[in-house]
Amino acid sequence: MAMAETSGAPILTVDGVPLKTQLRRATQRSRWRAIGLVAPLFLFVLVTFIVPIGDMLFRSVDNPTLTQFIPNTVKALDRWNGRQLPDELTFEALAKDLKLARMGQTIGRVASRLNFESGGMRSLITRSARKASKLRHGPYKEAMIKIDKRWGQRETWATIKLVGQRYTVVHYLASVDRKFNSDGDIIMQPEVRQIYVQIFNRTLWISLLVTVICLVLAYPIAYLLATLPMKTSNLLMILVLLPFWTSLLVRTTTWIVLLQSNGVINDLLVWIGIISEEGRIRMIYNMTGTVIAMTQILLPFMVLPLYSVMKTINPYHMRAAQSLGANPTRAFWKVYAPQTIPGVGAGSLLVFILSVGYYITPALVGGASGQMISNFIAYHMKSSLNWGLAAALGTILLGGVLILYWLYNRLVGIDNMKLG
Amino acid sequence: MALPPYVGPFDRTWHYVYLVICASVFTFLIAPILVIVPLSFNAEPYFTFTQKMMSLDPDAFSTRWYEDIVNNRQWLHSAKNSIIVAVFATLIATTLGTLAALGLSKPVMPYRSLIMGVLISPMIVPLIISAAGMFFFYSKIGLAQTYVGLILAHAALGTPFVVITVTATLIGFDQSLTRASAGLGASPTTTFFKVIMPLVTPGMISGALFAFITSFDEVVVVFFLAGFEQRTIPRQMWAGIREQISPTILAVATLMVIMTICLMTVVELLRRRNERLRGIRQT
Questions:
Q1: Domain limits at A154?
Q2: Are residues A406 and A292 part of one domain?
Q3: Which end of chain A is more exposed for a tag (fewer CB within 10 A), N or C?
Q4: CA dist., res. A236 & res. A182, Å (int)
Q5: Any idea what the CATH number is for the domain that residue B179 is in?
């Protein structure tokens, strides 16, 4: 060491390369090897998962229908000041666009797109397109207003101009029960269309309820599992792990069997005589059913983190507290409970994250009052085909979940997640 | 949990109340799963215990719903689909997931926690969002309503489990073992197969089983991505619950519970083997 320092020459390896350089190269090589191992999965997840989701999120602002199928009208409306009716040229563009769209059989998509924004537009567009196809020459303004007097109303044109924007925030406004009026101000949706704020609140409420019930139910059994001798607790652990591993659909089915009005629990209650044959309790196809089934399904996700934290708590702490004069209750709350907080946090966050996005259980046992936001996303995907709104609702849900996920990662660390 | 002799009557009562509470919670967890087993042998097309069943009349029980499954081409076809999709998805997920976990466990890996976050995300993102995204994108590239599309989707959903379980096996993995192996003249390939693989295998297999279960149980993505031809067992059950609800569903459910128990046993045995190999003693 002393020699190397005094001579000032770097230490060389056998190959004559300075040791520092060699070491850096070796680290570099093993770093590239590590990246090479991770890269295939990273690319796979990127292509099969992240890109599709990004693509869907883009749909929440993407709005190509009108610019694509009635382009001239949209272009003509760019010049429109929005105060009085558009000019003859705009009407002419509309009549020709409708005619072309009808021939190209794209008129249905234009009509549906406009109908999402304002009810009654579907019939207006399809009817006007049929009649406008017969128009040979101008003036188009009077002719169109004669076909339907709504063409003489400023609101109709404002709607088309709004929906004609290539990129739009209307889906996000609709997700929070708001919309643009014909002057371009943001106003509330009409009473009958105000649903999503309520659904978001309900989703949060159900998730919170499920999380709290799970915590209350999981805490005692996690404590029991953590304090019993290993042999007994391993046996009891099966009772937690079997439901954890059992198919979600199977467990939802079992709740239908148990809770329905001719189901096992109601039969049992009638048989014992607690309720009469007519007084069967309605426990399913409503919010109660959703909460009961979700609680049972998510309970293991609360028990496992609690258990793994409680397992590390030294039992002598409690005894020490008691020998210092605390009664068992006080010892528990002052000494034991605070040490379980990491487990409580991890379990609660996990259960909450999972329940916010729940779809299957509410769809099967939720009835009308137990539907959550995921069910509405599915409805707009599959039935109403309002994909823009589905994407906007999905983006909001995803944003919430990602914030919670980030929090979970900060607090618990994703690699500390225990599976079984 | 034996009570020490000095506790007073209040604590004693509370102790028994506590045990009753625990018993009720365990019942709540397990009873629903057990209840369907006898019901699946119901001779009548009801979802509840008949008077005859309660009196254990042998005529009240039958295996007709199980025969129903075996004789129904749709169920058999779904079973075949489920197995094909789950097996291939598991193979992809396990291979890619294990490699990635090996890379992630190296201390030189840059942006470790960020990449981990991305790789775990398929487990965290609500299924309906994954399904919707995949529906649009896979339709665009012509993979919707194909087996390939379904397999890729399920593989993506299964990878987080493999990454998590294999990473967990590698925690505390003694890196000097590979150096020792290299020092004794083994090539990196030999080191991988002779030293690393045996240590990682238990985690890999339990991750693979998780991935298998995830795919086998998955219905939302199937709902959006699969055509009639690709219907899996859960999709068929879903249709059964929604449309014509018959005890055949309970028979299928019972079979799935049995399958779950078998897989669970395998995982437990592997866990024990792993702990034995690594010298961890249960206390």
A1: 65-168
A2: yes
A3: N
A4: 64
A5: 1.10.3720.10
Out of B116, B210, B253, whose CB is closest to A414?
A: B116
Cβ under 8 Å to B: A residues 37-56 = 37-42, 44-46, 48-56
Q: Is residue A363 one of the residues assigned to a domain?
A: yes
Tokens, residue A402: 């990602």
Domain count for chain B: 1
- Report chain A's mean pLDDT, rounded to a whole number: 87
Residue of A nearest to B251 (CA): A250
Say which DSSP state B196 is in. Answer: I
State whether A235 and A314 are in the same domain: yes
Query: A269 lies in a domain?
Result: yes
- Specify burial of residue A68 (Cβ count, 10 A radius: 0-12, 13-18, 19+): middle
Nearest C-alpha neighbor of A147 from the set A125, A131, A123, A159:
A131
Task: Give the best residue of B128, B167, B170, B266 to mutate against chain A (max A CB count within 10 A).
Answer: B128
B205-241, pLDDT tens digit by residue?
889 998 999 999 999 999 999 988 899 999 999 988 8
> Which chain B residues have a beta carbon less than 8 Å from that of A49?
121-122, 130, 133-134, 156
Look at residues A151, A168, A185 and tell me which one is the last residue of a structural domain: A168
**For tokens 């990682």, what's the residue?**
B200
Compute the nearest-CA separation of B281 from chain A (Å).
12
Contact A224, B22 (CB under 8 A): yes
In this prediction, residue A2 carries a pLDDT of 45
Please enumerate in sequence order all residues whose Cβ is within 8 A of that of B113, keeping only pairs 6 or more positions apart, or say none.
A409, A414
- How many domains are there within chain A? 2
Domain membership of residue B107 (yes or no) is yes
**Residue bearing tokens 């919010």:** A287
Q: Is residue B217 part of a domain?
A: yes
What is the band of A148 on the pLDDT scale with cuts at 50, 70, 90? confident
- Does a structural domain hold residue A360? yes
Shortest distance, CA B71 to any CA of chain A (angstroms): 21
Q: Which residues of B touch A37 (CB under 8 A)?
A: 99-100, 102-103, 106
A254 and A358 together in one domain: yes
Give residues with Cβ within 8 angstroms of A402, minimum separation 6: B124
B108: nearest CB among A30, A56, A252: A30
CATH for A250: 1.10.3720.10
Identify which of A359, A251, A225 has the alpha carbon closest to the alpha carbon of residue A304.
A225
Is B96's CB within 8 Å of A27's CB? no
B253 to chain A: which residues are within 8 Å by CB? 247, 249-250, 253-254
Say what the pLDDT of residue B39 is: 86
For residue range A286-301, list pLDDT tens digits in order.
Answer: 999 999 999 999 999 9
A217 and A302 belong to one structural domain: yes
Nearest CB neighbour to A59, from listed B130, B136, B206? B136
Categorize the per-residue pLDDT at B279 as very low, low, confident or very high, splitting at 50, 70 and 90. Answer: low
Domain containing B179: what range? 78-245
Is residue A262 in a domain? yes
